[in-house]
Amino acid sequence: MLGFANGSPQPTPLGIRDAKLTIRRDGGPERELAAAKGDVLYYAGDGTDYIHVARDAKGHPIALEFHSDGMLTARREPRLP
Fold it and tell me: I want to staple 65 with a disulfide (CB 3.0 to 4.6 A). Which of 8, 41, 70, 74 is the partner?
C-alpha cells in the first residue's frame, strides 16, 4: 500500500484488494481504479475524473495528481515515505 499526503490527518491510500487497484480519498469509501494509457488511472465507472502517477527520473512514484472533470490543472499529493 502506498500513502500520499493530502493535507488532512488521514493520508490517501492506494492499494490492491481482491486483485483490483483501489483508492480511499478523504476517509470516504474505497473505490476501484481502472488503468488507462501510461500512468493515468480513472475511477471505475467515472470517465471524467482521473489520476496521473508522477514519477521521478528512476521511475518511482513520487506523487498523485488528481484531475477533476477532465481539467488539465491538478491537485498534487506527494508520496509519503
Answer: 74
Q: 19 is written with which cell numbers?
A: 486483485
Tens of pLDDT, residues 26-77: 778 888 999 888 899 998 877 788 999 999 999 999 999 999 888 888 999 9
Given its phi and psi angles, is residue 58 left (phi above 0), alpha (psi -120 to 50 degrees) or beta? Answer: alpha
Which grid cell is 31? 473505490
Q: What is the pTM of this model?
A: 0.77
Question: What residues does 48 pair with on adjacent strands?
Answer: none
Q: Please state, in angstroms and rounded to a whole number, the distance separating the CA atoms of residues 29 and 59.
A: 29
Q: Which of 70, 9, 65 is nearest to 79 (CA)?
A: 65
